[in-house]
Write a structure and sequence with these properties.
Number of strands of chain A: 11
Largest sheet of chain A: 7 strands, mixed
Radius of gyration of chain A: 16 Å
Shape of chain A: globular
Strand order of the largest sheet of chain A: 5-2-1-6-7-11-10
Largest interface: A-B, 66 and 66 residues
Distance between the termini of chain A: 36 Å
Number of helices of chain A: 6
CATH superfamily of chain A: Class I glutamine amidotransferase (GATase) domain
Number of domains of chain A: 1
CATH topology of chain A: Rossmann fold
Oligomer: homodimer
CATH class of chain A: Alpha Beta
Helix content of chain A: 25-40%
Structural class of chain A: alpha/beta
Order of helices and strands of chain A: EHEEEEEHEHEEEEHHH
Strand content of chain A: 15-25%
Chain lengths: 209, 209
Amino acid sequence: MRIAILIFDQLTALDAVGPYEVLSRLPGADLRFVAKEPGAKRTDTGALALSADLGLADLPDPEIVLVPGGEGNRPLLGDDEVLDWLRSAHETSAWTTSVCTGSLVLGAAGLLEGKRATSHWVYREALRAYGAEPVDARVVEDGKVVTAAGVSSGIDMALTLAARVAGDDVAKAIQLGIEYDPDPPFDAGAPHKATPELVELIRSLENAP
Amino acid sequence: MRIAILIFDQLTALDAVGPYEVLSRLPGADLRFVAKEPGAKRTDTGALALSADLGLADLPDPEIVLVPGGEGNRPLLGDDEVLDWLRSAHETSAWTTSVCTGSLVLGAAGLLEGKRATSHWVYREALRAYGAEPVDARVVEDGKVVTAAGVSSGIDMALTLAARVAGDDVAKAIQLGIEYDPDPPFDAGAPHKATPELVELIRSLENAP
């Protein structure tokens, strides 16, 4: 199964690497990182680079396409080459997916028109500009379009996708292999679980629309 | 705060990138990926490379040192240059940490002697060879040595560490920023939650000691 994860400079690494760690373990997975220009893409902190082995033209017809978030994807919202590639990939994909603000890119490509979708909680309402109906959920499926909430939610999205693609037992085996039995020391990972001060802090740091 | 994540070819990407995504958000964090030879390190699937900007000699005294897992770390178990660097870093570190089979490397460096520690569930018992007491827990703290269970547990470990280093509110803010409100579609992420068949499957795939 051909899987394309689109990356770019200033991406949020975990948005891409969480799903990669799950989807690359699917039986028969042929997962590639693709970019407008192949090569190393620096993450939003500057401390890490992820490699894109292929350009867009090298993988025009992935069966799963995934767009991660990070402020580096904002230039893509007006990039016809990237949006055309996404639209074309979506025509034949089995699943078109995003993590975090990756859904803004799907929206800019016109793929969320009339669809239920999600994003990082700070950016969720911004999906309305693309004709989407924002949903407060960690993973939102609408037909073959599957969007995930912020950063770490890509792991949950990818396990959901793994079950759809290969069955529950395969998804459970992958979950056991990556020992995904989450147990965070705090219960503060969603805005309704955090203090108003922390919610405001993250909003201000995120520089949201 | 100087943070070093040691990487190598054939690492498991999420072991490193989960904690990176948390620890790089600590106020004043100066997080670097280091390797025996700086440059791109291919992950265990071959589909991705992560960049190491620094060599070991470039960062001899990190305040946090983290060793991830992946079968590519087995050669490090007998690599004096790496083990000496770890021992030396540990002398002055505030925290010496690992994710997944990264604890085997800490063990080989002699840093787990008489300590409680954990690893990926498949490899946990192998820690006894290094004088450690294996503990069935997602995050194990013993003094300044903090070890995490398999792959995804590095996120929980890093949030625990963030709280120790910068206080609960900072850790909660980071958790909210990465929207870590986990909700996997299955409850199969630990061996006692999975079927015996899946446990046996993962054991055989992992090629455990």
